[in-house]
Amino acid sequence: MDNFEKLGLCQALNKSLKKIGFKKPTPIQAEAIPFILAGKDLLGSASTGTGKTGAFAIPVIDRIISSNKDECALIVTPTRELAKQVINVFRDLLGPSNSIKACCLIGGEAIGKQLNQLKRNPRIIIGTPGRINDHLEKKSLSLKKTAYLVLDETDRMLDMGFGIQINQILKFMPQERQTLMFSATFPKNIITLSKKYLKNPERVTVDAENTLSKNIKHEVINIDNSKKYNTLIEQLEKRKGAVLVFVKTKHSTEKIAKNLKRDGFKADALNGDLRQSKRDRIMKNFRENKIRVLIATDIASRGLDVRHLQHVINFDLPQVAEDYIHRIGRTARAGASGEAICFVSPNEGHLWLNIDMLLNPDAKHKYSTRGKSSNKSYKPKRKSSGKSSNGKNFADKPKRKSSGKSSNGKNFADKPKRKSSGKSSKKTVRSSDAKPKKRFYPAKKKTKK
Ligand code: AMP
User: Fold this and answer.
1) Which atom of ligand 1 is the closest one to the Cα of 52?
2) What is the CB < 6 Å shell around ligand 1?
3) Ligand 1 centre from 54 Cα, in Å?
4) Residue with CA nearest ligand 1 atom 6
């Protein structure tokens, strides 16, 4: 589809789309918008950074503007940052003079401010499950007129344990409504949920499920935990542009950011323990290039859209393989290119293995043989025989919980010795090793009932 006009959207929307520079729909928008405008429930999936927000925001706004009833929409997101990002897209699309108001209900923000916003009868409510439920319990929010429900990043919401909260919210929703579920990935539990909450949904899958942008260059660095910090510095020094570094714990974000600041980098930490006002300020500084390096937990792994973000470094591997796709999907957005670097320590071999199996399902058979467990560490190699160097099967290696400490017991974030021998022991596997050449599932561009 070569322009938005063909979708027959209302004039106000066409004007806003021009103003924000959206000339033609992205593939997910071209596929999903006509179904949503036609009132269908929808299960939508596309790679991260491909315009999913517009795919639901544009038609929902169109339907709300065109309706002569006081219909409302509820958009539920897993994280506060994503909710804020989504409300900004809605506000841009509504335009400054629109009488339709949008309101953001997220934890960590003063409830009084939200109560004031709710008194102005917003017709678009965006929020995180916990705070939405708080307002429902207080009866400060009514969903009786909610004709549209969007569950964004649904798989993440379930991973974060929001399943019960979502069920709770749905009890307050009218039965007669249009429900849209979006996510970059759709594991089985989402399909089950969709059967419960969607009525005869259209399924829109643009590009393969679980795919990464083709514009991401991948690099894997096998490294001991104790050398990760120095290697991070080397990587930051040799790269230009904004960097998002993912670590496992909130504590690590603070430690590493503190050490990087001491070592002369414009860095900051983002984690769920920070006050919301601080989280907002840090995200704003990162978006505005005032911070070059953001050290974050997985709260930053979903949906965040920072256009100039060039590099994602996985200082620690994610515990859940799917999160890898979301993490590195923060770069190479909207057709840009980016780089993803993975630090893999010997005790993260099993995590890398899970990621590798997700990226290369065809290679699964290599890992399926059960053998004796091995205590030897696994250095990830894509073309591996599935055995560790001692010939034992690494697939059975007992999973160890990382303590965030290096092998000598010291906290890695506390070891910023710049002149380390990290280089010599570092083994870099260039992108051919890590780049998913094959699609994880057969490439699909289809819509079916
Ligand atoms: P999203 O996947 O919704 O986070 O969108 C990723 C990026 O694509 C954001 O920076 C959007 O502003 C941008 N984007 C979304 N739709 C379009 C479009 N139709 N034309 C140009 N840019 C778009």
Assistant:
1) 3
2) 22, 25-26, 29, 49-54, 303, 305, 307, 333-334
3) 7
4) 49
Task: State which ligand 1 atom lies nearest to the alpha carbon of 53.
Answer: 3
For ligand 1, what atom is nearest to the CA of residue 23? 20
Nearest ligand 1 atom to the CA of 303 is 4
Per-residue pLDDT of the chain (449 residues; tens, 9 = 90+): 778 988 999 999 999 999 999 999 999 999 999 999 999 999 988 766 788 899 999 999 999 998 877 899 999 999 998 999 999 999 999 998 889 999 999 998 889 999 999 999 999 999 999 999 999 999 999 999 999 999 998 888 887 889 899 999 999 999 999 999 987 677 778 888 888 889 999 999 876 445 566 788 888 999 999 999 999 999 999 999 999 999 999 999 999 999 999 999 999 999 988 888 898 899 999 999 999 999 999 888 776 778 788 899 999 999 888 888 888 888 877 667 789 999 999 999 889 888 888 777 665 544 433 333 333 333 333 333 333 333 333 222 333 333 333 333 333 333 333 333 333 333 333 322 233 333 333 333 444 43
Given the CA of residue 4, which atom of ligand 1 is nearest to it? Answer: 19
**What is the token pair recorded at 136?**
């429902």
Helices 163-171, 129-138: inter-axial angle, 10-degree rounding: 40
Q: Tell me if 233 sits within 8 A of 299, measured CB to CB.
A: no
Nearest CA to ligand 1 atom 4: 49
Alpha-carbon span 114 to 106, nearest angstrom? 9
Answer yes or no: are the C-beta atoms of 185 and 322 closer than 8 Å. yes
For residue 202, count CB atoms less than 10 angstroms from its CB and return exposed for 0-12, middle for 13-18, buried for 19 or more.
Answer: buried
Ligand 1 mean position, distance from CA 431 (Å): 27
Query: d(Cα 119, Cα 373) in Å, to the nearest integer?
Result: 61
- In CATH terms, the fold of domain 210-377 is Rossmann fold (3.40.50)
Where are the domain boundaries for CATH 3.40.50.300 in the chain? 4-207, 210-377
Residue 53 CA to ligand 1 center (angstroms) comes to: 7
**CA 259 – CA 418 distance, rounded (Å):** 11
* Nearest protein CA to atom 21 of ligand 1, as residue: 22
For the entire predicted model, the pTM comes to 0.65
Name the residue with tokens 């080397």.
234
Q: Note the helical H segments in 296-430.
A: 321-328, 349-359, 364-367, 422-425
For 97-146, what is the HEC assignment? Answer: CCCCCEEEECCCCCHHHHHHHHHCCCCEEEECHHHHHHHHHHCCCCCCCE
**The residue count for the chain:** 449
Q: What's the fold here for domain 4-207? A: Rossmann fold (3.40.50)
